[in-house]
């Protein structure tokens, strides 16, 4: 059975930033805000990809369960197929795509 959740601490930042900062700012968010969100999204994509490498998965399987449980709660876990990985990474890929489109328009 595949795990198709995208919940975790890494995805919790987006609603706080969008509703807590971007909508409450009097003017539109500046270039620094969009660069920080782009950097954060790329870092999340990188971490999700690294967690799905077979070498990392073998290393984590040799350790204690609390470490693996911590990664799962953080939102990073190993998926069995490439299709599941793409579906797991799709929200961040769409965020990166929209930020890059926003920068092109401006």
Describe this structure in words.
By secondary structure, the protein is mainly α. The chain has one domain. 73% of the residues lie in helices and 0% in strands. The protein is built from five helices and no strands. Helix 2 (31-51) runs antiparallel to helix 5 (82-105). It is elongated and about 50 Å long. The N and C termini lie far apart (44 Å).
Q: Main attributes?
A:
106 residues; mainly alpha
Overall helicity: over 70%
Beta-strand percent range? under 5%
Overall morphology = elongated
Number of DSSP strands? 0
Could you provide a short overview of the structure?
The protein has 106 residues and is mainly alpha-helical.
Layout of SSEs?
Blueprint: H1 9-22, H2 31-51, H3 54-61, H4 65-74, H5 82-105
Helix pairs in contact: 2-5
């Amino acid at each position: 059975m595949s795990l198709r959740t995208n919940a975790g601490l890494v995805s919790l930042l987006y609603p706080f930033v969008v509703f807590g900062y971007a909508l409450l700012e009097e003017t539109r968010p500046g270039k620094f805000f969009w660069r920080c969100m782009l950097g954060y999204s790329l870092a999340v994509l990188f971490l999700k990809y690294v967690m799905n490498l077979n070498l990392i998965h073998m290393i984590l399987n040799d350790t204690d369960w609390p470490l693996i449980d911590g990664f799962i709660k953080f939102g990073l876990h190993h998926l069995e197929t490439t299709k599941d990985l793409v579906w797991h990474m799709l929200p961040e890929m769409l965020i990166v795509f929209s930020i890059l489109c926003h920068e092109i328009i401006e």
